[in-house]
Amino acid sequence: MSGTGCLPARVSSARSASLILLRGWYGFHMVTTVSLPDELHAALKRVADDEHRSMNATIVVALEQYVAARSHRAKVRELASDVARRDAELLDRLAQ
């Protein structure tokens, strides 16, 4: 699409598929090319079709969930570490 600033959603090859992700943020689009194995590309396409989403939207949702889960795990580890430091004496007594 000339003049619109849009790039093709998928460029295929025999070994992998490259996806170009476009994410709008104040009129700016971050473009990232990701090479996927054929099997993952096919699975992603099935999920996108099942959820009536574009592959790009499906990737964005998956990445948001992944980042949120990692952030949550990091917060849980931080809180557990805080509890262990704060209550070290109590935990030592309970372990005896």
Number of helices: 3
- Kindly estimate the percentage of residues that lie in beta strands according to DSSP: 15-25%
Taken from the alpha-carbon principal axes, the silhouette is elongated
What's the alpha carbon Rg, rounded to whole Å?
21 Å
Q: How does the major sheet shape up?
A: 3 strands, antiparallel
Question: What is the strand arrangement across the widest sheet?
Answer: 1-2-3
Mean pLDDT: 76
Order of helices and strands: EEEHHH
Low-confidence stretches: 1-15
N-to-C CA distance: 70 Å
Portion in helices: 55-70%
Q: Which secondary structure elements does this structure contain, and how are they paired or packed?
A:
Blueprint: E1 10-12, E2 16-25, E3 28-37, H1 38-50, H2 55-86, H3 88-95
Antiparallel strand pairs: 1-2, 2-3
What do these coordinates show?
It is built from three helices and three strands. The model is unreliable at 1-15 (pLDDT under 50). The protein has one domain (10-95). It has helices spanning 38-50, 55-86, 88-95; strands spanning 10-12, 16-25, 28-37.
Quick tags:
96 residues; alpha+beta; three-stranded antiparallel sheet; 55% helix
In short, what is this structure?
With 96 residues, the protein is an alpha+beta fold. The protein is built from 3 helices and 3 strands. The chain has one domain (10-95).
